[in-house]
């Protein structure tokens, strides 16, 4: 047997063994003639997670992933039936199942009807699987807190210590989620650069988004250094470097370099003015950090407001054809993660712009429910046919 085959069987046996632990909960429910303190949500979320991984296994044609998660779906379905049979609050369980089903249906519709490319579909499904699995693996931490908080004999120092550990873990998870999502968002510029390199000209690509993103990342890097926030520094340093690469690529093939250099000089002058004001006029590190944070917030909110023009076009044409769903969805998720991170570290300057980003993202996503993705002329042709 090859090493890959051995690992495949080992993963299969250990994972199915893990799923079989639910039999103990079912036995407890049957013996007590009711669920008691056994929660329903772990069964439902495990079933949902197995469904995602099973679909991923089908797309990747991975027999191990398919087999393990098919078994997981079957077992969790049995556990849920057992739970509901003895539950006295069936309406709550059915409500959760309906909500989970709606989420699954929305995801299935988006992956199969909106995304046509199989490779892209697999990538987005894998991202959904990863996020769901990480969230599920972190969930037992909250149970530990609950147990310790309710344990009268538990030393207060231990409760404080565990809560501190959990708080650090939550910040760490949010930090890396925010880092991965934001750097992934910055890397989307590589697609634009590839198009420029292939065509040997900039075409209709705009230079200003690269420049404004560079300015925003530079401000946030300075703010992160003043605050001593490693997450903000890490993300925005990568953002600065990537924008410099994208701008260099753009300028190399641009036929109107004079205009681009003029815009760069404006931003450089603005940056110099901000630097002189912060370092020479504003007194004290606390006040300096506070004012720079406000400036970062304003710049980010203005940049996040750019989709408003697209939203106005959608309302005018009654079509979401010009609004990319993937972009709106990822920006919403990214803003939500940063909002949670800002709340965790008590940073209002992170909370405000990303709260705005979540609100705008939800409005954009709502438009996909209100307006179709085909232009009115095409719909008229389809109706006549």
UniProtKB/TrEMBL annotation:
GO molecular function: sugar transmembrane transporter activity
Coiled coil: none
Entry membrane topology: Multi-pass membrane protein
Top-level division of the source organism's lineage: Eukaryota
Gene3D superfamilies: 1.20.1280.290
Membrane-traversing stretches: 36-55, 67-86, 92-112, 124-149, 161-187, 207-226, 232-252, 264-280, 292-312, 324-344, 350-371
Compartments it resides in: Cell membrane; Golgi apparatus membrane
Principal subcellular localization: membrane
UniProt GO cellular component terms: Golgi membrane; plasma membrane
Classification via PANTHER family: RAG1-ACTIVATING PROTEIN 1 (PTHR10791), SUGAR TRANSPORTER SWEET1 (PTHR10791:SF30)
Protein name: Sugar transporter SWEET1
């Amino acid at each position: 047997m090859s090493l890959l085959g051995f690992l495949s069987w080992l993963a299969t046996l250990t994972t199915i063994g893990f799923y079989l632990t639910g039999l103990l909960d079912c036995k407890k429910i049957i013996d007590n003639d009711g669920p008691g303190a056994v929660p329903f949500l772990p069964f439902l979320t495990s079933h949902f997670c197995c469904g995602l991984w099973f679909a991923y296994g089908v797309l990747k044609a991975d027999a191990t992933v398919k087999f393990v998660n098919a078994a997981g779906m079957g077992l969790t379905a049995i556990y849920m039936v057992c739970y509901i049979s003895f539950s006295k609050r069936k309406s709550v369980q059915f409500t959760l199942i309906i909500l989970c089903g709606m989420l699954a249906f929305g995801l299935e519709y988006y992956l199969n009807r909106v995304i046509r490319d199989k490779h892209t579909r697999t990538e987005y499904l894998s991202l959904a699987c990863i996020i769901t699995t990480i969230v599920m693996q972190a969930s037992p931490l909250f149970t530990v807190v609950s147990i310790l908080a309710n344990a009268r004999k538990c030393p207060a120092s231990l409760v404080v210590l565990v809560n501190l550990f959990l708080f650090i873990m939550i910040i760490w998870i949010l930090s890396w989620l925010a880092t991965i999502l934001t750097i992934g968002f910055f890397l989307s510029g590589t697609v634009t650069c590839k198009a420029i390199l292939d065509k040997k000209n900039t075409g209709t690509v705009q230079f200003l988004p690269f420049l404004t993103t560079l300015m925003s990342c530079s401000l946030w890097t300075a703010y992160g250094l003043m605050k001593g926030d490693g997450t903000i520094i890490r993300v925005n340093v990568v953002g600065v470097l990537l924008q410099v690469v994208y701008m260099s690529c753009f300028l190399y093939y641009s036929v109107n370099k004079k205009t681009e250099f003029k815009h760069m000089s404006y931003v450089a002058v603005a940056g110099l003015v901000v630097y002189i004001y912060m370092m020479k006029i504003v007194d004290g590190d606390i006040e300096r950090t506070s004012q720079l944070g406000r400036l970062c917030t304003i710049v980010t909110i203005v940049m996040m407001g750019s989709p408003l023009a697209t939203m106005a076009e959608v309302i005018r044409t009654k079509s979401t054809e010009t609004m990319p769903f993937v972009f709106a969805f990822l920006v919403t998720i990214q803003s939500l993660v940063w909002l949670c991170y800002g709340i965790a570290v008590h940073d209002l300057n992170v909370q405000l712009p990303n709260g705005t980003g979540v609100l705008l993202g939800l409005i954009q996503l709502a438009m996909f429910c209100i307006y179709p993705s085909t232009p009115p002329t095409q719909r008229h042709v389809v109706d006549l046919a």
